[in-house]
Amino acid sequence: MNDKSQAIPEQPSHSLFGEELNIDFQYYLRVLRKHKWAIIAMTVLVTGLAAFYAFTATPIYQSTATLLIESKKANIVSIEEIYGFDGNNEEYYQTQFELLKSRALAEKVIDKLNLKEHPLYVNSDDPGPFSLNTLRHLGLGSDSEEAATQPGESALEPISDIITAENTSATDPVVGDEAAGDLFAGTAEFTAEDRELQLLVNKFTNALTIEPVRRTQLVKITYESPDPELAALVANTVGDTYIESYLDAKMEMTQKAAEWLSDRLGGLQLKLDESERRLIEFREEHQLIDVAGTVGALNEQQVTIATTALSTAQRELAEARSLYNEVQRLKQNSPELLDTIPAVQDDQLIRTFKIEQGQAQRELDELSNRYGAKHPKIVDAESRLNAITDNLNRQVDRVISSIQNDYELAGQKVNELQRALASGKREIQDINKKKFELVALEREVEANRKLYDTFFNRIRETDTTDGLEAANARVSDRAVPATFPSKPKKSLVVALAMIAGLIGSVLIAFLREQMDDTIKGTDEIESRLGVHLLGIIPLVKAGLLQRKKRIPLSPFELKDKKGTFVESIRTIRTSLCLDSIDKPHKRVVITSSIPGEGKSTMAVNLAYSLSQIEKVILIDADMRRPTVAKAFGISPDLPGLADYLRAQTREEAVHISECVVRNINDSNMDVIPCGKLPDNPLELLASSRFSRLLQKLGEHYDRVIIDCAPTQAVSDALVVGKQADTVLYAVKSHTTSMNLIRRGLQRLRQVGAHVLGVVVTQVDVDKISSYGGDYYYQGYYDYYGYSGEGKKKKKRSKSKDAESPSETEPAVAEV
After folding, report:
1. N or C end of the chain, less CB within 10 A?
2. Are 694 and 679 in contact (CB under 8 A)?
3. Rounded to the nearest 5°, which phi and psi values hold at 555?
4. What is the pLDDT of residues 411-420, one digit of tens each?
């Protein structure tokens, strides 16, 4: 059955940084035990170096002074207020901390204490206790001179200029131009003295530490020096010099501010006078003396009244128009109905005439019942009725005429009110426009007056507070000389070095273990290669001659006092026989990835072990570097496999029986050596003659063991493996790369060869047992007492082994 389609997994057996957290404590313990001597050596080395440094380094003393920086000032008016500077914010304190670290302050302290002449600073290039080289060694000096002030910077600029530059704007008329000029001052080329000063400042600032105390207004000033008295003196002097410089800077700022305020005050006075003159002229020109009083209010009230009257007139006009339209309609269509109009009916005369008309009509009707039409009374009654009717009609006409007159008057009234309202609005708009201009002029006068008053009051306050400047800081705790050095802390340095060395060596050990891509345990065979582990062959001692000539260990010359080697070969034999139950593996190829992995030793000893229960023939098919004949002492002049395969003519023909060396050492094993090395071994092994030979040998022998060349060197094993029943793959423990093994197995599977499994060779049992290796045979041999016996014998034979160099080298399996 071929495993051609079987994929070979490539996952690592252990991962320190894998995605899944799978902690294998036994694995970590094995790694630590494996590399314990390297870990111990590195830890001891690092600890020793640290101890040497700690006990030979120059002691450094440290003194600390505490400075309280106050935000509230004692003077009546703070000069910071003139510039709008807030002394209560975080930026203010950060600025003070940086000023304490400034080079300008350091230079003033150096000058004040005359440190240029101090023995610790004189001849800084000499290897003295406080020289530049010593400071660099202690971590206090600068590694380079890049921090030195470059040409164009003022090295001796007073701290007052720095405070001024920090607290004022660059464009401020008071100090902006002068400060800008100071920035470009001192453009002269550096002299040797200036360079020496800058180196001294570098040393000074590197030894000085400014550390603010969290959530307080305190700042600690710490100075380190080999001289404890000097350390305390410098720490106190830094605080005192900072306070003095601050007071000097504030005094200078106050004087400059007073001069600037005085200059600005004259200009503000002229500006105020001009704005007041233009306000008065505007009022007189437009006669707006009382514009802010009742004039504007009266105009607005009149517009409001006119608006109300217009609304009333428009409503009356609408009513008159409606009545007029009704009258005109009745005149045209039903004149007799004019008296039905409500306005006509409501007229008092018309009502009287209608009453009289009714009475005259009733009298006429009564007289008509008694008299004839020509009777005088009838005639008088009709005359009186007609007269009343005429009067009624005339009164109706007068009412109709009044309706028309009212309509016309209402229209005229609306027109007049509209004209008056429009005129009033124009007048108000004109007044408002002038009023806005007047308000703008008044606002300008008011602003100029306030600005003038502000500057005037500030000048008076500044004059009043002149000489009352108070420091923004005070020394709350002065530094005292230290009794014991602060550096180096010997116990801490040694402890940290030991911990660092231990951690570093452990990390290196695990890193080496992760980078070691070789077979280190039995669990890696199936998990990383996807093949079965058939067995393990331990490392045994070989003679010096065998090692140099690369001769495989034969079972007849093997010195295996503990019997572990023989037992391992028997285990492989058992695995092979058990797997042959279903499908006999008669033709077995033994190969490896690269030379030196012990495949020939395994082939020789496995063939001999099989010969104890079967009839076996061993073929040396490694025509590149054959070694089987050397293992059994067979003469190299005898014909072999190569001679048999390359015979092309009858004269050259060699019978196979001539190539077989039978019954090696009276065993049931025959051997076909390689013979004379051919020029074309791959073509010979790929020939049909070789295939027929394997078939015939399989008919006459129970097992055919074939020793082939490594897979990575040549393709011989691929050709032979394809014709064989199965392949045994030898892998040297802790030597062969996993990628090489994987590629070799993959190449065999690609040609259709059946790989039965892997045999791990040359396993150092004593070395693995020292760190708890996981090869399964260790526990087996411990159970039977091999390991303990080996340890005892190892002690007893230590001197004997030293005298016998032939047994001090490991077995060199032909590779």
Report:
1. N
2. no
3. -65, -15
4. 787 788 777 7
Q: Which of these, 62, 68, 63, lies nearest to 213 by C-alpha position?
A: 68
Pairing of strands 61-69, 218-225: antiparallel
Neighbours of 815 (CB within 10 A): 24
Torsions phi, psi for 384 (to 5 deg): -60, -40
The H-or-E segment that residue 222 falls in is: strand 218-225
List all residues 6 or more positions away from 433 whose beta carbon is below 8 Å from its beta carbon. none
DSSP state, residue 287: T
The dihedral through the CA atoms of 625, 629, 633, 638 has a sign that is negative
Pairing state between β 703-707 and 587-592: parallel
Closest CA to 777 of 531, 526, 538: 538
State which amino acid sits at residue 122.
V
- Determine how many CB atoms are found less than 10 A away from the CB of residue 172: 17
Tokens read off for 501: 């060395």
Q: How confident is the model at residue 497 (pLDDT cuts 50, 70, 90)?
A: very high
> Residue 60 carries which DSSP code?
B
Edge to edge, the sheet with strand 616-620 lists 533-538, 755-763, 726-732, 587-592, 703-707, 616-620, 669-672
Secondary structure (DSSP) of 714-755:
-SHHHHHHHHSSEEEEEEETTTSBHHHHHHHHHHHHHTT--E
> Where are the extended beta strands (E) located within 115-163?
none
DSSP for 173-202 reads TTTHHHHHHHHT---SPPPHHHHHHHHHHH
- pLDDT score for 135: 41
Q: Which of 295, 575, 331, 339 is nearest to 434 (CA)?
A: 295
The mean per-residue pLDDT over the stretch 531-535 comes to 88
pTM of whole model > 0.70? no
Q: What is the Cα–Cα distance from 262 to 256, expressed in whole angstroms?
A: 10
Q: What are the phi and psi torsion angles at 311 (to 5°)?
A: -65, -40
Instruction: Answer yes or no: is pLDDT of 180 > 50.
Output: no
Question: Would you call the peptide bond into 488 cis, given omega within 30 degrees of 0 as the criterion?
Answer: yes
Which residues sit opposite 38 in a β-bridge? none
Q: What's the pLDDT at 468?
A: 54
pLDDT digits (tens, 9 = 90+) for 318-334: 777 777 776 766 666 66
Q: Which two tokens stand for residue 345?
A: 């009916």
| pLDDT value for 550 | 56
Helix H or strand E encompassing 263: helix 228-286
Coil, helix or strand at residue 88? coil
Distance CA 6, CA 615 (A): 33
Two structure tokens written together for 225: 């020096």
425-432: average pLDDT: 72
Predicted confidence band of residue 753 (pLDDT cuts 50, 70, 90): very high
Taking alpha carbons only, the member of 714, 720, 814 closest to residue 761 is: 814
Percent of the chain residues past pLDDT 70, beyond the cut: 71
Percent of the chain that is helix, strand, coil (3-state, to 5):
60, 10, 30
Do 177 and 145 meet the contact criterion of CB atoms below 8 Å apart?
A: no
Could you tell me which residue, 676 or 795, shows the higher pLDDT? 676
Neighbouring CB atoms inside 10 A of 317's CB total 20
Q: What percentage of residues in the chain have a pLDDT greater than 90?
A: 19
Distance (Å) of CA 785 to CA 360, 561, 565, 790: 167, 13, 15, 8
Residue with tokens 């260990």: 553
Average predicted confidence (pLDDT) for the chain: 75
Question: Three-state SS across 321-356?
Answer: HHHHHHHHHHHHHCHHHHHHCHHHHCCHHHHHHHHH
Contacts of 132 (CB under 8 A, 6+ apart): 124, 125, 141, 199, 203
Q: What is the rounded CA–CA span in Å between residue 12 and residue 20?
A: 13
- DSSP code of 224? E
d(CA 556, CA 516): 36
**Contact predicate 709/747, CB 8 Å:** no
